[in-house]
Structure formats: C-alpha cells, structure tokens
Amino acid sequence: MAWAMLLVAGLLEVVWAYCMKQSEGFTRVVPTAITLVTMIGSFALLSLSMRTLPLGTAYVIWTGIGAVGAFLAGIAFLGEHASTTRILAALLIVSGLVLMKVSGPH
Description:
Blueprint: H1 2-22, H2 29-49, H3 55-78, H4 84-103
C-alpha cells in the first residue's frame, strides 16, 4: 500500500508542478487552487508512505516521479524541447528510480 500511495503522491507532484506553471506566478485562481490542493495531497501521501518506507527511498522515488513527469508534461503539453541529451537525462533518473525500488525492502 505504501508504494501505491507513493506513486499517487508522485503523480500529484506532476499535477501541481504543471498547474503552478499555468498559474502564472499564482495570479490565476483556478491553477493556483489546483496547485495548492494537489500539493497538500502529494505531501500527505508522501508522509503516509514514509510510515513504512525508508526516508531516502520514499523521497527519491517521489522527486524522481515528479521530475520525470514534469519533464514529460512540459514536452507533451507546453511544447518544451526534447533533445537527445534531455531524454537521456530523464532515462538516467528512471534507471535510478528502478535501482532504488529493487534495492529497498520488499
């Protein structure tokens, strides 16, 4: 259950990062509200997952999902550049997440 909560927490991190960008410096009400609500949800689920997962594992997985997810959202929805180097960097992050998962408690 902790891993499921952590996955959802990471996905919520992607949502709040995207909505924060859309809020234009917290000047638009709806994206700002979505940012705050998903931020709280993300932190709450991260906190709950840390009841059983090690701090380092939970935090690295959470930030990794957020980083790679925000990178992909930027490309898919905001027209950000997808160079070979940036894609390689994202793949390295994903490989680190996989290694963190398989090296932790099962």
